[in-house]
């Protein structure tokens, strides 16, 4: 192989300089352990000196800081401490989240919520019971009413099916109290009711009386208080009763629970008390006298041998007598013109004399009526 001479540029660093001293062989270090010599400490200026260190001694002639009393005082008050620099940007107030309340507020509202829930539950239960009572009137004859329970002298009453009531009496009741009963949808006419409300507000005379559904609602559930609040409740109950009870049953309830004397309720007790007659055999004249007592039934008593006597102890017999005379002047004309047609339109067909006898037809006088006549001495 051909040899290549070395490049002088690559071997230059291996050459010895002419001025370099010759290298001397270094003596071999001993393998014996050498004693440890602590290096000298130099003062450090990056941290405070330890306690008792005198590296930072006071300069010559320094006697310590002057006492507080000898220190110079500034003519201005010291500057107040400043906040961080740069100051933080102003924070916008965060509005409280809606619906969030403190624990104290939530705990304080719990009793009120519980009370409100209880009140709503009680009202709902009362509403359900009231609806059930009204609905039961379609089939059940109540043993007593609010009017009867409020009478301090007691009440004498016995129910009788409307089929066993004289058509003279039923026709007289419709003509005297509510001629539109068979032909009206609902408990009353709203325009007439609005006129009555305005008359009551302005103190005028009532242009129209209560309808039969209103009177049934009043007799069964309310009292004789004359107030706007009672009228409102009466109207609400009448609307509800008209929705659940048909005209035939409404007429039956009215005939059995209307007041005809201080302690006489219903046509059964009234027929036997005044005329010694069952309700199925009442004549037109007797029926007109009975319906004449409906506006003011508390100022009359049985006359000796039968009939009506308005000479009562309270001196108010003239009021009941005036209503009876008013009925005698008005009702017979309606009966002559319409006959028993309104009764049939209300759902009561046939005559009372055509009905088969039954245990509840009031064909015999109630025992309480017999005892009352004997106590008054008007047999």
From TrEMBL:
It comes from the Bacteria. The chain crosses the membrane at residues 119-140. Coiled coil: none annotated. GO terms for molecular function: pentosyltransferase activity. Residues 74-96 have a biased composition (Pro residues). The keyword Lipoprotein does not apply. Residues 1-109, 345-366 are annotated as: Disordered. This is Monofunctional biosynthetic peptidoglycan transglycosylase. Residues 26-35 have a biased composition (Low complexity). Residues 98-109 have a biased composition (Basic residues). Residues 157-301 form the Glycosyl transferase family domain. One of its GO terms (biological process) is regulation of cell shape. The keyword Cell inner membrane applies. InterPro entries: Glyco_trans_51, Lysozyme-like_dom_sf, PBP_transglycosylase, Pep_trsgly. It holds the Pfam family Transgly. Keywords: Cell inner membrane, Cell membrane, Cell shape, Cell wall biogenesis/degradation, Glycosyltransferase, Membrane, Peptidoglycan synthesis, Transferase, Transmembrane, Transmembrane helix. GO terms for cellular component: membrane; peptidoglycan-based cell wall.
